[in-house]
Amino acid sequence: MKVTNLCNIICSLLLGIAIFCSCSKDDDSSYGITNTPPNTSSSTENNDDNLGGKDDDKIDNEKEEDVRYYVKYKLDMPSLHINVRKTIRFVTENGVQSFDTMDMQWEGTYGPLKKGTKLFLECASHSQSEYNYSQTNYHGCIYVCREKEPFVIKAEDSGKHDISLLYFIDF
What we know:
Elements: H1 2-21, H2 54-66, E1 69-76, E2 86-92, E3 95-101, E4 105-113, E5 118-125, H3 130-134, E6 138-146, E7 152-159, E8 163-168
Antiparallel strand pairs: 1-4, 1-6, 2-3, 2-5, 5-8, 6-7
């Protein structure tokens, strides 16, 4: 008995909800209600300047100039010899930077940078021995991200001798 009463109550509620929801916004027009946003004018003024004109281009250019990019450089320079000195050159927000190292790995993140910036990563060994070159395998990558987006690999190179990577920020 209690289950039947509960089912009747639930059915009544569902029927009431279905009737209430069957009303649409189109029905409002019969009551004099319109969906026109406030503070809009129906007059035909000359608004050609705002329709894809110069002002929109300025806004797009300003937004594009405000976009910040960041670069991450990675180098793996494994060698059987720990005393191989290498020079690493790369671009940061402060221009071209370089340093010498005997490390077997290096990573650096720099920015903000602007669209169109020429990025490069170079690694040159100072070893005089061809044997040291044959025992080394360089691998370098340039990753770029826009604003808070994830880093994306944009350039990659591997080799036994010096490596050089180049990428222009263009997205």
